[in-house]
Design a protein that fits this description.
four-stranded parallel sheet; alpha/beta; 173 residues; 38% helix; globular; two-stranded antiparallel sheet
Length: 173
């Protein structure tokens, strides 16, 4: 985090309300949570379920000899649970040339995603955190996997828009 202003570690410390442990694909991960961001008491059940499904898909792809996605987007990253967990899972599977882009509209979420990635041992080259709207970012970016734990209460129009726009951002295949 040396390229960031020196006050970011103080912001992170001031807004961290809890540290939790989480296990994904046999890996022990730790996440700092914040009262200012979604799921401030624990890793929420929606994220846990989504990561179980992603883990099964990774197993299926590995068993079938299919290549795992090399580019991933964690849209609405919050503290970075989805992106960090999948990135660490990729490393554990021996994949090194991947890139996760975590983005959230909230600068605090960007700081927490970046810090949680760093604290879980991810190299800055494999994980980047950005403060941008849900599916904004590089216009020509294409992803092999897009992860998001959108709240159902966002409403059908929001969810439909997300899936329509996200589908257009997927890489061929």
């Amino acid at each position: 985090m040396s390229s960031e202003p020196e006050f970011y570690p103080r912001v992170f410390a001031a807004y961290t309300t809890k540290r939790v442990e989480f296990r994904f694909r046999g890996l022990d991960l730790r996440f700092s949570l914040s009262h200012g961001l979604f799921s401030s008491a624990d890793i929420d059940s929606g994220s846990r379920l989504l990561l179980k499904v992603v883990s099964r898909l990774m197993d299926d792809d590995l068993r079938a000899g299919r290549e795992l996605p090399k580019t991933m987007l964690d849209a609405g990253s919050g503290v970075g649970v989805l992106g960090v967990a999948v990135a660490r899972g990729m490393e554990a599977a021996g994949i090194r040339d991947f890139r996760v882009r975590a983005q959230d509209r909230d600068e605090l979420a960007r700081v927490f995603s970046a810090r949680n990635a760093l604290e879980n041992g991810l190299a800055p080259g494999s994980f980047g955190a950005f403060a941008e709207k849900l599916l904004d970012g590089p216009a020509d970016a294409r992803y092999g996997l897009i992860l998001s734990n959108l709240p159902a209460k966002a409403g059908l129009p929001v969810l439909e828009d997300f899936f329509y726009r996200a589908a257009r951002m997927l890489a061929p295949g």
